[in-house]
Specification:
Blueprint lengths: L13 E10 L3 H12 L4 E5 L24 H13 L3 E4 L3 E5 L4 E5 L2 E10 L3 E3 L15 E2 L2 H4 L7 E5 L3 H12 L3 E5 L9 H9 L4 E2 L2 E8 L3 E8 L5 E5 L2 E4 L3 E3 L2 H5 L23 E3 L10 H20 L6
Parallel strand pairs: 1-2, 1-6, 2-3, 6-17, 8-15, 9-10, 9-15, 10-11
Antiparallel strand pairs: 4-5, 5-6, 7-16, 12-13, 13-14
The protein binds NADP nicotinamide-adenine-dinucleotide phosphate.
NADP nicotinamide-adenine-dinucleotide phosphate (NAP) binds next to helix 4.
């Protein structure tokens, strides 16, 4: 809805007023949009890139019910096409600021929106190792996405850093496309699911246990990695062409901080079982609110947040 007399091309002008604005177009945001619209709320989804979130980079999803095996991009295309049947998704629209008040005011790179409620589904970003050489070598041998960049390393020497589901899935992916691969993990056991450990073992992928990265070495591109064995203290340099870092996620919670939302120590937004935050009419779901960080959990969170929002805005009969 465009406010009368105000053009949407005026940069900082108010371009729309909604019952609820969903910020972030991953699985949680898309699900929130579908449920909010179907509950009769005026709603829009603001997405700074393209809809789909981190799932877009998953080579294969095998645990989303109804889809025994589907590439992440295909699943998210289907989900965003479904959401678009109901709700407008503004792509490339990054939220820069949010303010509370009578109405929430949401400022993006192309305008301002007013809303009675906000559902925050801003997701999480890849955690960095914060070691020498990492920052300067992104795109020159350092990658946080095996599916995106793995192909360039076919037949070449790479390491995957981490011991969670992402690291082991990435390792299997890189192995299957023909990279010469080892895993570097800081402990003596993986935290990833059992079946992934088994696949790593069966495929004879070597693991440097109890080992941390001290430095990523190279000038114009990565040439080696310096590793330290935490048990012996020994340091050695391993020649490599690529370093795939998969050491977890950091929530994108800057907007949550602006809104004064309670967060845990890791910066994940605290929500109750209905996905309400501590601030009335603000809800959070998906990776930004932590939990098991699964697609199925994100779509649940988005739906539950939208229905809580409906209850709070509309006060339906069953609440009285
Ligand atoms: P994660 O489960 O948090 O694992 C992160 C890994 O990185 C851990 O092994 C951790 O070591 C290690 N690590 C963390 N900081 C490090 C540092 N500074 N230096 C070296 N190592 C470090 O993260 P994730 O694997 O990205 O998974 C995130 C969530 O997505 C999880 O809930 C996971 O189950 C889910 N996921 C699911 C699937 C699937 O079901 N198909 C696929 C991918 C991810 P420690 O073990 O020592 O802490």
């Amino acid at each position: 809805m465009t406010i009368e007399g105000i053009s949407s091309s005026q940069g900082d002008a108010v371009v729309g007023e909604y019952d609820v604005v969903v910020i972030g177009g991953g699985p949680a945001g898309l699900s929130a949009g579908i449920y909010a619209k179907r509950a009769g709320l005026e709603c829009i989804i603001l997405e700074k890139g393209v809809p789909g979130g981190q799932v877009l980079t998953s080579p294969s999803i095998e645990n989303y019910p109804g889809f025994p095996e589907i590439p992440g991009m295909k699943l998210m295309d289907a989900m965003s096409d479904h959401a678009r049947r109901y709700v407008d998704i503004k792509e490339g629209e990054e939220v820069l600021r949010v303010r509370g008040g009578d109405r929430f005011e949401i400022t993006t790179n192309s305008g301002r929106y007013l809303a009675r409620a906000i559902i925050l589904t801003t997701g999480a970003i890849h955690r960095k190792l914060d070691v020498a050489g990492e920052e300067g070598m992104v795109g020159k041998g350092v990658s946080y996405c095996a599916t995106c960049d793995g192909f360039f390393y076919k037949g070449r020497e790479v390491v995957v850093v981490g011991g969670g589901n992402t690291a082991l899935t990435d390792a299997l992916y890189l192995h299957s496309i023909g990279c010469k691969l080892s895993i570097v993990h800081r402990r003596d056991s993986f935290r990833a699911d059992r079946h992934l450990h088994e696949s790593i073992r069966k495929n004879n992928i070597p693991v440097f246990w109890n080992t941390v990265v001290e430095e990523i070495v190279g000038k114009d591109e990565v040439t080696a990695i310096r590793l330290r064995d935490l048990k012996t203290g020994a340091v050695h340099t391993k020649p490599v062409n690529g370093v795939f870092i998969a050491v977890g996620e950091v929530p994108s919670s800057q907007l949550a901080a602006e809104l004064g939302l309670d967060m845990d120590q890791g910066g994940f937004v605290s929500v109750d079982k209905s996905f309400r935050t501590n601030v009335p009419f603000v809800y959070a779901a998906g990776d930004v609110s932590g939990g098991i960080r699964q697609i199925v959990a994100a779509v649940h969170g988005g739906a539950a947040a939208a229905l809580s929002c409906f209850e709070d805005l509309m006060n339906p009969y069953y609440r009285r």
